[in-house]
From TrEMBL:
Statement: the UniProt record of this protein carries the keyword Transmembrane helix: yes
Organism: Candidatus Colwellbacteria bacterium CG10_big_fil_rev_8_21_14_0_10_42_22
Keyword Transmembrane helix: yes
Transmembrane segments: 7-32, 52-79
Keywords attached to this entry: Membrane, Transmembrane, Transmembrane helix
Name of the protein described by the UniProt record: Membrane-associated protein
Amino acid sequence: MKLNPKAFGLACGSIWGALMALMTIINLIPMFGGYAGEMLLVFAGIYPGYTISWFGVLIGAIYGFIDAFIGGWLFVWVYNKFDKE
């Protein structure tokens, strides 16, 4: 069964972009401060310009979408290459 790389990439990108934004927002709420903070600091080292801030919510969502879109697209592209129908 062939899969659609663009659709899979959009699905992965949408989910990861939303999760990056949500994790950043949750980390900014004082009651939940520190939730996923260590992981977000790793992402700050990977994604240039990303910080744990309100502006970082937007930057993280954009980077997360692009990163997961490319990863999802490549995954399905490779899957389709190995699929012998």
